[in-house]
């Protein structure tokens, strides 16, 4: 019989406590920058554990810190706090009690894992050579709380040497994890295209400049960016999600608005795609006798893991869970994750924590009204984060 790793046993002892925390958060979800009850509950738990903390970080964010017995590195662990505007349709006792709001992306689990890891690490405080920072971050799903937390100084005094994050995923069974070297998540940009033409009666199209036709040409031309301008070995997505224009079926439309998103995995491709969109939009409009406005709103940066830190996470997971429980992911996600801003500041690793369980019917994707997790994953997440911190605080394990 395989011997169970000691840190897994420690996490198993507090499983019921973590489940209780997760279910409380799940029943009381709050949207980004509205996480007031969530903040207050986290503060209660930190106070009960005797962990030093600061509130009001980037709004509803919290910074906790566990100071070791002597100086050393500082490792940060991050959990996001916000829920989504989705109606919870699950038939479970811990179903959301707030109409139209739900933890449909697992942030309730992330907070429970971080509090579990904090409890175990607090018990080892006298053994720690260095510090552990706890980032409870608001608004990952909306405006992004990571960058404001960094601007508020959470990476300094003491300076964070490495930062770790995780995200539950139903793509992987509970008890297993997925790691990714290098590029983990894409960058994002929101785009708005406003086409201007000239209105006229539909019976006399020669007197107008038709922005409906112009929009059709723009849409067709935008599809050539990925297929003909982006290196096939790179990745990019250009999606137009809404199109609005016109007032009557017999009137040539003088204005059309298109709104979409761009996803890329590296800065060069990002610049190329944005440049080509603006060029196509402007020149197609001019060629058809109209004009165009192109508005770009820069979103999250790409999340790029540090290979040496991923190596440590991989080694720990193989030791704690077993070799067959660790999956090396080959492809990056074109979804975005604002942990990327922490990753830009310090060496980092962000990994996937499996939460699927077919036997329990836990099979639904995130951002869906039936999303749930196998709560056994809370034990796995807490244990791994503790072991990762302990390894990273050992001087001989890595250096930068």
From TrEMBL:
Pfam families for this protein: M20_dimer (PF07687), Peptidase_M20 (PF01546)
Origin: domain of life: Bacteria
Chain segments annotated as transmembrane: none
Domain Peptidase M20 dimerisation: start-end pairs: 189-286
InterPro entries per the UniProt record, alphabetical: Amidohydrolase, Peptidase_M20, Peptidase_M20_dimer
UniProt cross-references to PANTHER family, sorted A to Z: METALLOPEPTIDASE, PUTATIVE (AFU_ORTHOLOGUE AFUA_6G09600)-RELATED (PTHR11014:SF63), PEPTIDASE M20 FAMILY MEMBER (PTHR11014)
Entry protein name: Amidohydrolase
